[in-house]
Amino acid sequence: EDQVTQSPEALRLQEGESSSLNCSYTVSGLRGLFWYRQDPGKGPEFLFTLYSAGEEKEKERLKATLTKKESFLHITAPKPEDSATYLCAVQREDGNNRLAFGKGNQVVVIP
Amino acid sequence: GAGVSQSPRYKVAKRGQDVALRCDPISGHVSLFWYQQALGQGPEFLTYFQNEAQLDKSGLPSDRFFAERPEGSVSTLKIQRTQQEDSAVYLCASSLARDTGTSGRSPYNNEQFFGPGTRLTVL
Question: What sign does the dihedral A90-A96-A98-A101 (CA atoms) show?
């Protein structure tokens, strides 16, 4: 069974204080690893897809990296508008496109 | 263009009542997914359609849950005889990609785009 574990569950950062979120995964054959952002009362918003170990993708203050066992989402010099829950999900290579999500990293950036 | 839309946004039902939740995917998206998200948890897979075909319904928690997508576009998730444990946010997502099978990866158009969800409260 696919397992996705995100840590820390909750994180409070001062504005400008860079940090990293971790997503550890166990899956039999990874097709892709996805990062989403979710604001309260809204659906998840797509951020990145990573397909192979060593791959990196960036968007504004966010950078996602992937190894064979985990992914990191680095937040550089965060701003209050980066406050959200960040969800990690894996998709298997077995022909079904379903996503298996972790519980999320709840990030609060204090001005 | 327009994103995924869901209606109603909020639904309050009395225990035992039937409910129907609607999803309008992004136009042209082949794949459609339903997920259930409990408070403080990540979304959990319920079911998956490719066009009008329901290819995977292994995540549906009981036979009270039923989903359809008769014309390969709009989808409805129906819950019969609702119970308190059905209270959750129900998310719909659509994707341009179709299931590529085991022949290899399709690295493009694989992203799932989510609607705002329907918050169901069963009293």
Answer: negative
Q: How far apart are alpha carbons B82 and B19 in whole angstroms?
A: 8
In three-state secondary structure terms, A97 is coil
Phi, psi of A101 (to 5 degrees): -100, 155
Q: Is B72 on the interface with A (CB under 8 A)?
A: no
Would you give the distance in Å from CA B41 to the centre of its chain? 16
pLDDT band at B109; cut points 50, 70, 90: low
Sign of CA dihedral B58, B63, B64, B68: positive
Is residue B62 less than 8 Å (CB to CB) from chain A?
no
CA distance B4 to A71: 27
Closest CB from A46, A96, A102 relative to B113: A46
Q: Give the torsion sign (CA, B120, B62, B114, A27).
A: positive
CA–CA separation, A3 vs A24, rounded Å? 8
Q: Do A104 and B42 touch (CB under 8 A)?
A: yes
pLDDT, tens digit, for every residue of A51-105?
Answer: 999 999 999 999 999 999 999 999 999 999 999 999 999 999 886 789 999 999 9
